[in-house]
Here is the input.
Amino acid sequence: MEVPLHGEPLVSLTEWSMRHIRDIFEAPTDEQSLRAISATFADNVDGSVNGMSLNREGINQLVLAMRRSSPAGLMVHWQQAVEASSDPATNRGGSFGGVYIIRGIHKILPGSQNPVEFERHKTVTV
Here is the structure.
């Protein structure tokens, strides 16, 4: 992976976040999805889902479970994205917050024979 020289502009946090989230969930294969997770999160990441702490392996398992419940593949739809760059000339500092929906998740409800489509609403802060 090449790292831009100090002072060279990077892509915006919005563009980076949207691309990485899309690559994780919309990857054609589980292997590509796991590679996208590796490219997005540090090995020692400490995140949370629904208030519960989640490490990198937990993220892997959560994403794979969603992917396996989606025969036609998952789709990410962004609802909102807000960026506050502290260095707009190079995009080397700042923050990003976004809301997205993952569609294409299928589950069989108790007492039912047919899967029902669900969607997950997520927020991300970088």
